[in-house]
Amino acid sequence: MGIALAGKYLDRLSYRVWVLCGDSEMAEGSIWEALDKASYYQLSNLIAIVDVNRLGQRGPTELEWNLDGYARRAEAFGARVLTINGHDLAEIDEALATAAEGDGSQPTVVLARTIKGRGFSEVENHEGWHGKPFPEDMAIRAVAELGGERSLRIRSPLPETPTHATPATPIPDTPSTPKYPIGEKVATRKAYGDTLAALGADHPRVVALDGEVSNSTHADQFAKAYPGRYFEMFIAEQQLVASAVGLSVRHYVPFASTFAAFFTRAYDFIRMAAISQANIRLVGSHAGVEIGADGPSQMALEDLAMMRAVQGSTVLYPSDATSTAALVEAMAEQSGVSYLRTTRGAYPVLYNAGESFPIGGAKLLRSSPDDAVTLIGAGVTLHACLAAAERLAGGGIRARVIDLYSIKPIDTEALAAAAAVTNGRLVVVEDHHPEGGLGSAVTDALLDAGPQTLRVAHLCVRDLPGSGTSEELLAAAGIDAQHIEAAARDLLNDW
Amino acid sequence: MGIALAGKYLDRLSYRVWVLCGDSEMAEGSIWEALDKASYYQLSNLIAIVDVNRLGQRGPTELEWNLDGYARRAEAFGARVLTINGHDLAEIDEALATAAEGDGSQPTVVLARTIKGRGFSEVENHEGWHGKPFPEDMAIRAVAELGGERSLRIRSPLPETPTHATPATPIPDTPSTPKYPIGEKVATRKAYGDTLAALGADHPRVVALDGEVSNSTHADQFAKAYPGRYFEMFIAEQQLVASAVGLSVRHYVPFASTFAAFFTRAYDFIRMAAISQANIRLVGSHAGVEIGADGPSQMALEDLAMMRAVQGSTVLYPSDATSTAALVEAMAEQSGVSYLRTTRGAYPVLYNAGESFPIGGAKLLRSSPDDAVTLIGAGVTLHACLAAAERLAGGGIRARVIDLYSIKPIDTEALAAAAAVTNGRLVVVEDHHPEGGLGSAVTDALLDAGPQTLRVAHLCVRDLPGSGTSEELLAAAGIDAQHIEAAARDLLNDW
């Protein structure tokens, strides 16, 4: 899908995308998300060939050889369908030639009726042979029945070299980063939209996709400015991520956004993007209980765990507009799967424009050599940490405050220094479930670095949240300034 | 889907399941997985009403008011379609009556053409009002235009009390647990199949589902023994989990299995099952690099992180057949979302039949008061820990070995005791990515329990694995006995 989108709308090249599908996988909803989008975007350069051999891994498929059934579905989803005998070379040749011509407005689905194991009578159309190598004696009989060892050499015409391919352009050094005055309340999702639009101006290969919530994620700012480089994926998150992968294959710089919670729909695609070594940028808004009234179904409380566990991933969680802008720019140049978590509400800008936020870094917002305790937050909880530090200072307790905007990779050095100064006393606060998020990231990093003596208060969302205001829900989860202050005092009293 | 399945095949009650869908969500592949299965299982008791109001959150939907387009798709997926004006009470009444009768073999989809915001001219059919409350002045005008404040009371006929409902039966105390002789090599996935079939005999409310890999997960043993209580979900993992949730609503005890990696397809459904407080059991086979030849796309290396982060979840990872059998039985009685990770290969049975494996416990397989280091594993890595302890003993080093079969909840007491005895020296070994799995579970638990001095070697799968034998891949990832021994020696040398 993404490669075909790029071919038709961005590269404007005449290449075609050939996709080989098994019949079993036609049961996956993601197949229908793809066909739906392929017909919506009139991708006549996309051809799916379905090998309808009737047999899955454990037995017959749902539709077996009901080719009409497959055809009705594919046609209803907007495809042109060609049905052939998948063992007849002339029919294959004709179908591929017809498919390759395209019809200008529809993707093509070639339904090829085949017989699994055809040509070897011992297994032909039999169950129980999926993914199994033959024992040696069977292998010998199979080769014999198939006509003996042959050394066929087949020459196919070479594809023409495309002439209009645009080479990948490096990101210019000085994109026009949006600037925000310190103290102004700006939602990080808004800063994402501003920066994406700015990147769009500077960099013609930046493209954006969203899952029907662009007015919430603020991807709509890019969509309005560069409609030709924006792809609406509607509510189909698997296809949202899959298309981003395809666009990255064509050397575009895709940013895909939706509510952070909804990326859980696409976890397999995210995982596979990492395995495929694609370069995609995911931006999840409305994370955590902070969203308030909409309730737990819309609250991402597992996203940091999910994204950290992806091989080679980058996980970012800025607290203010300035750092968001810097990190969105950095993501454009980052390889692999990168993820940025944004917040619904507007919070004060903390940093001056031009301050640097390298991926893998952290910011010390308050520190002294006499700090008694370290408060670590990111996103909405960083603001609570700052307020708690202020309260603690009022009681004569110096608290170091770390903005852990880069959760993976993580600034182990800053964490180790803080742990050393504050005698191992850490309060880690996150708007996320206890497992796999900020808390784990901090302690994993410290313990990977060597022996540690730590006393950690881990404030996070332990119970099922309800609906309420942000303030009510942050307090109910025990991750607001008051709870942070109390946890810090407890750590000091205990030791 | 699951409630309708239960009604038709298990409860054999005449109830109907009414589902209200938004038109925007028809873009989700999961909708088509559901309709596909509803028609495969001839669920004429399932009626989906689609509110086709043309407007999503950010603008028009893909198909807008193309009701024929929706109808063609739903019909191709096997549904009977009724198209109505969703504002005409007589048409609604007739459609619901027709739908309620059922037609014996097909689910029904009622496509209701509606106008968003109908009756208030300022917003009717306008974009930009999704999920937004009116300002007070608009609210006053809306009420006025809709006919002013009224206090209508509508009485509908009460549903008949079903007469054949089966009450939930408690699990009998003594299910016929399969027994395995110590030392025999048995794959934990095989023990899952054995135990599930045994539970099936003892407990009529246990049901099973699988995603077209039952011959690999061994759910096929249950399917063969109790075909009436087995539901094949083919390759549609979202629907696999969704149906399990529905079956649990009807007080069945569903076990849903597939390759552990493929549950990433259903993460949103798993998360939502927890939020919905459903009681479902998920069993993921073929976890980790241990699977060998099939390569990283089939290797679950994020599943423990994903499942731990689910609110109130239970995460189990047994190392042998005996403990697997005990934990599968325990899962039948466990509430919430529980997950069991099984292993492809066959490894020696470690425990005597009848040994107890409470959820939240751990097993000390080797221990003495003079232990110098603790080795913590689960699943395949536990066997490597035992082999490493043997090697260390040969060099005069006593290693404590913990079988951490229950990852969530976790046996903090056993971990704290081991840390205390071995001077905080822990080697944690897992066939999983570094983030959110066994390593995090151990250190999170210890640090939650209070101040700790720890020196941890965390052996896990850090790089993208390739294809090879189990032994080759476990060695390449650095999680075999040799690497564990070396890590333990390093911890002792460092301190």
Outline of this structure?
Two copies of one chain form a homodimer. By secondary structure, chain A is of the alpha/beta class.
Please name the defining characteristics of this protein:
homodimer, elongated, 495 residues, seven-stranded mixed sheet
Number of strands of chain A: 18
On the 0 to 100 scale, the average pLDDT of chain A is 95
Oligomer type: homodimer
Helix segment tally of chain A: 17
Main sheet characteristics of chain A: 7 strands, mixed
- Indicate the percent of residues in helices of chain A: 25-40%
Distance between the termini of chain A: 58 Å
The helix/strand class of chain A is alpha/beta
What this model shows, in words?
- The structure is a homodimer of 495-residue chains.
- Chain A is α/β, with parallel strands linked by helices and 495 residues long.
- In chain A, 36% of the residues lie in helices and 18% in strands.
- In chain A, the strands form four sheets. Chain A has a seven-stranded mixed β-sheet with strand order 7-6-8-9-11-10-16, with helices on both faces. In chain A, strands 13-15-14-17-18 form a five-stranded mixed β-sheet, with helices on both faces.
- In chain A, helix 6 packs across helix 12 (321-332), helix 9 (237-249) packs parallel to helix 10 and helix 13 (380-394) packs across helix 17.
- The relative contact order of chain A is 0.09.
- Chains A and B meet through helix 2, helix 3, helix 7, helix 9 and helix 10 of A and helix 2, helix 3, helix 7, helix 9 and helix 10 of B.
